[in-house]
Amino acid sequence: MNTLKPTIALTLLLTLLGCSGQTTTTKQQSQAQEKEQEQDLVKQPPIPEQRPTEVSQTFAISPQRIMAQPAMRMVMPSIQPHYIPEKSSENYQHIVTNPLRVVSEHPVSTFSIDVDTGSYSNIRRMINQGNLPPKDAVRIEEMINYFDYQYPIPSSTNQPFAINIEMMTAPWNHDRKLLKIGLKGYEIASDKLGNANLVFLLDVSGSMNQPNKLPLLKKSLQLLTAQLDNHDRVSIVVYAGAAGVVLKPTPGNDHISINNALDQLRAGGSTHGSQGITLAYQLARQSFIKGGINRVILATDGDFNVGTTNIDTLKQLIEKNSKSGIGLTTLGFGQGNYNDYLMEQLADIGNGNYAYIDNINEARKVLVDQLSSTLQIIAKDVKIQLEFNPDQVAQYRLIGYENRQLKREDFNNDKIDAGDIGAGHTVTAIYELTMTNATNKLIDPLRYQQPKYSANKGSEIAMIKLRYKQPNSDTSQLITKIINRDLLTTKPSDDFQFTNAVMAFGELLRGGKYLENYDYLDIIELANQHKGQDDFGYRGEFIQLVRTVVSLRKIEPTTQGSTSSTN
């Protein structure tokens, strides 16, 4: 009986699996065959069964044929292996925290503004999945700028943004002051936007075959196109191994054609991003709307793993087209192989912004609620320069904007590219200051240095300068403003206080070097007290994220997510 039981069990198992009567193979042979079949599925996705008239195609089309052909259909295979990367290979630029500067040695600070928000929604995704984010994924300025603030709105379009300045004592050290510089772009209602010529450049490679990638991408773009009318144009280009046009330029109110083109997309193949970008720009140029919005929207997980390996060539292509009036916005999706560094770089070069879409609510925020700021640029190459008065300020530190630093001479050079502001965008920068009368300075003053400032400037904290260009101009305009010590207030706005909570959260995620004993519970208390108006619940969600990090640190107090960084 003992010898018969294994035989009976094996026979029953083979019968259940439909394998009875077949020739058995060794375990090694079976595994090898399965692996080979899986590779074949990824490299050459099968044609769907029972659909003989619809063939999966990826094809390159000459610019001359694009406009001559009727709306082209690309039917992608409906049966695909679920792509799961073996391990995380997400890529982030290595960030070196801005150092503390002595005013007498480095009186001038110059940087480019940044309106990207991708870092915040990306680290939110990680925290909600139960992981602490890697330090290099945390860009504090993008966390701060994720939230909207009640800054004054410009009274005239002649100056595209208003400046808001506040100063208060730092909650973690009474010897430190926080200086906030806020910009608010003038707002344009979505129905007042210029006519839009939008080309969706969509990654449909095998790595996009995950629920939080291609399916979320399609729903996100449907939210955007639902707001377009017959004066707008939408085109769709896909890339996966080769590039092809799924939808030629189509009126924005033809929602049936647009949604059908999006619905039919399936993920399969490898990624050839460079060829797709070239084709997308060709379409954008042929449908160019003079005086309107001309933009390529690249939606991908950033995994450009086939085709050009020369990223510099790719950047040159994007820069050339941005100068001719065709911008680039990047929308990031997914995880595992996500290339955050590349997504941010391409958007910066393309005079656009970068957002990470981790759920449908974020898609609505970026592509519906903030459609004007996502698509319509109101000021380009915006630079900020502060000169601090050594009579009042001994030391300073710019919080965030590490990869936006400019040389002092870059400020007046109109050939140096900088950040752009969209309609209604709010942009915030925070400096931590140590005043000359502070008792606790991190850097001792030099013994033999003598002050060289003018006595009549003794009450000035700093002078701020802003340079910007109108969207259709190559010549910058200058704004200057004096910051006086009497701006220091004991009753800062709720917006400023909440901003400090977000900033401190980012600082702690990056190690908290300058926050002394200030901790996550202090941040929760500060944010709760100054949450202010929260119509969409983003500030309440932030507080819950901080609470989650408190819990996660009890599980993994000294480790953070493992991903690659690029210098």
Q: Termini separation (Å)?
A: 67 Å
Mean pLDDT: 82
> CATH homologous superfamily of the domain at 96-116 and 140-188 and 378-437 and 459-515, by name?
Gamma-adaptin ear (GAE) domain
- Radius of gyration, taken over Cα atoms and rounded to an integer in Å: 27 Å
Strand order of the largest sheet: 8-7-6-9-10-11
* CATH class placement of the domain at 96-116 and 140-188 and 378-437 and 459-515: Mainly Beta
Largest sheet: 6 strands, mixed
Q: What is the β-strand count? A: 18
Shape: globular
**What CATH architecture of the domain at 96-116 and 140-188 and 378-437 and 459-515 would you give?**
Sandwich
Tell me the strand percentage band.
15-25%
H/I helix tally: 15
Provide the low-confidence segments as ranges.
1-86
Give helix % range: 25-40%
Instruction: Please identify the structural class as seen in this structure.
Output: alpha/beta
The CATH topology of the domain at 96-116 and 140-188 and 378-437 and 459-515 is given as: Immunoglobulin-like
Helices and strands, with pairings:
Elements: H1 4-16, H2 27-43, H3 63-68, E1 91-93, E2 101-102, E3 108-112, H4 118-128, H5 140-144, E4 161-169, E5 176-185, E6 196-203, H6 214-225, E7 233-240, E8 242-251, H7 255-263, H8 273-286, E9 293-300, H9 311-323, E10 327-332, H10 340-349, E11 354-356, H11 360-369, H12 371-375, E12 377-388, E13 393-399, E14 419-422, E15 426-435, E16 460-469, E17 477-484, H13 494-509, H14 520-529, H15 538-555, E18 564-566
Parallel strand pairs: 1-18, 6-7, 6-9, 9-10, 10-11
Antiparallel strand pairs: 2-13, 3-12, 4-5, 5-15, 7-8, 12-14, 12-16, 13-15, 16-17
